Each structure stands twice: as structure tokens, then as C-alpha cells.
Amino acid sequence: xxxxxLIYGLGAIGLGVLGFVVGDFALQWQPVPKGVVGREALAYVxxxxxxxxxxxxxxxxxxxxxxxxxxxxxxxxxxxxxMPNALANRPNDLAAWNAVAEALALSLGGLAGWGIxxxxxxxxxxGRLFGLCPVIFGLAHFGYAKFTASMIPGWLPAPLFFAxxxxxxxxxxxxxxxxxxxxxxxxxxxxxMYATFALILHLPRVIxxxxxxxxxxxxxxxxxxxxxxWIVRSTVKAP
Length: 239
Fold this sequence. Notes:
Layout: H1 3-22, H2 39-58, H3 63-89, H4 94-118, H5 120-130, H6 132-143, H7 145-151, H8 159-179, H9 183-208, H10 213-235
């Protein structure tokens, strides 16, 4: 297995399996309109592509091409689903742009994963562009601080403080990647933060409510973002 892309692939596998189980798309991360002809069949096709791409990504011989396939698929989410909504329907809605950024981060992670093995210069550019996404995540944390605080585990004190702290960490990491200032450290810390979200926030919520599809989806998205950030880390040469 290729460890650089392993976490990224596992997140996609989780989303694919979940798609098969529920026979639907990935909720607000894949907002296909209800009235689309053949929607259920398309949902199964989407699940199959996620599963196949994820499996290819965790197998070392096909890891780069699996990452590319996932990057292209997530890119379709950006162009076909999220951007039209953000531009036409809610151009001033930070939540809509946060959704664009999440899908874009997943796409750029996959493209960077392909670039590592085939075009390191492209991989580095994708990694730098990835920095835009956590900047938007940070803005969303500040803009929706009370909602973010409501997601903080109850055993942590001062949830609003952690909402602002994680927002600041997102923005600092993203700006560091964009500017090329300690980018490897920035990507490493972003990956660690996303992994922490998966372990102390989303996994306990899944355990507490295993029948809730939204909790599983958020867990697999968090895992996928962790993997994407870890791939970006590998596009940056150590000093």
C-alpha cells in the first residue's frame, strides 16, 4: 500500500460503501437535485466510482491513478454541484463557499496525489492551491462561530474559544501554503487537525448514533480531508 495516499483512499471507500448501503448521494457534500432523471441509479454509479477509486488509491500499483480518478470525481462535484449554487443562488452565503472549498480540497488532494508520482511540479501547484480551502474553512468558523462551538465535544471547556482557535489554525495553515512559508509544517498540522476532528469529534458521534447517516458521512469526509492534507504535505520538499 502507498501510505501517502492511504488515508485519502480509505475516506473514499467509506463514502462509497455508505452510498451503496443507503442508495443515495453524500448528502450536502454531493447535492444532486431530487428531480434528476435516474437519480437512484446515478447514486449507485457514484458509490461504485468512489469505491473503485478508493480501492485503487490504497493499492500501491494504482495509487496515483486512483488518486487522480478521485480528484477528477470530486472536481465534478465542485463544477457541477457546488459552484453553480454558490454563484447563482447564494453568492454572498459563506456556507455555500465553504461547501465549494470542501469539495475542492478533496479534488486538489487527489490531483496532488497523482502529481507526486507523475508531475511533481503539478503536485506542488495543486498543494499550494489547496491552501485556499482552509482559508475559507477558517472564515466559516468565524462566520458561524456559534454553530462551530455547538459541534465541540461537551467534555472540552470554552467551546467558543475552540471554534475561534480552529478557525485561526485553518487560516494560518492555508495562508502558509499559499505563500510557501513553512508549507510542509502547515500541511502536516492541517492533516493532524483534521485527524483530530475525525477521532475526537466525528468518531464518538458515530458510536453514539450509529444509525445516523449524517454522522458517518461527516466522519468519512473528515478522513478524506485528512488524507488530502497529508498528500499535500508530500508535495512539499522538506527544508
